[in-house]
Design brief:
Layout (H helix, E strand, L loop, with lengths): L2 H6 L12 E5 L3 H11 L4 E6 L3 E9 L2 E8 L24 E4 L3 H13 L8 E2 L3 E7 L5 E7 L23 H9 L15
Parallel strand pairs: 1-4, 5-8
Antiparallel strand pairs: 2-3, 3-4, 6-7, 7-8
């Protein structure tokens, strides 16, 4: 096996099954349950509770959940984060996008949010995906999307200008476009702090 196959080849890829859970933080678990379970219709599927924290899981797909921690006596101060708008308080997180099966489901969710008097954008057409944007009671920016053309159900075609539309791609994408694989991975900047 070549170095390229070990680094970026198909033979080494894990068999991902979606997101098991994305763990976020809330300062009001009750409001979070009411929003995710009742308003969004993301079924509450599990809860963990200790004297130090609660950890609740909401189903957003088969074996895929969004989870929340609520810490006892946490000094966390919630703030509103808008999707796609840089925020000095959240440099490592922009938004969570939940996948929907089709445009009809996107319209239905938008109507559901509006029927609960929840602020939601119009549908935004990003060409390969269409989306709506809203925030949860914790100020976490959310998006709901459906793939107009699903790139996850087919082999990657790095020459496809509809799916790979960055006119000035980073070096790794150029390498994928030319060779179909990556020949190296940079060392982690975290390794030097260990």
């Amino acid at each position: 096996m070549s170095d390229a196959e070990r680094v970026g080849g198909e033979q080494t890829r894990p068999s991902w099954q979606g997101i098991n859970h994305l763990a976020l933080v809330t300062t009001d678990m009750d409001a979070t349950v009411r929003f995710y379970h009742a308003t969004l219709g993301a079924r509450l599927v599990a809860t963990i509770g200790t004297p130090e924290f609660r950890h609740y899981f909401f189903e957003v797909g088969s074996q895929c959940t969004v989870a929340f921690f609520e810490y006892a006596d946490a000094p966390a101060q919630p703030f509103v984060n808008r999707a796609g708008v840089p925020n000095e308080h959240a440099p490592q997180f922009d938004h969570l996008s939940l996948n929907l099966p089709d445009e009809q489901a996107l319209h239905a969710l938008r109507q559901r949010l509006q029927s609960h008097d929840w602020e939601v954008t119009d549908i935004v057409d990003h060409e390969v995906v269409r989306s709506i944007y809203f925030s949860d009671p914790n100020g976490i920016a959310l998006e709901a999307s459906w793939w107009v053309r699903d790139p996850t159900s087919q082999p990657a075609d790095y020459q496809d200008p509809q799916l790979f539309a960055d006119p000035d791609p980073v070096a790794a994408v150029v390498e994928l476009q030319i060779t179909g694989t990556l020949t190296g991975i940079r060392e982690s900047t975290l390794a030097s702090t260990a």
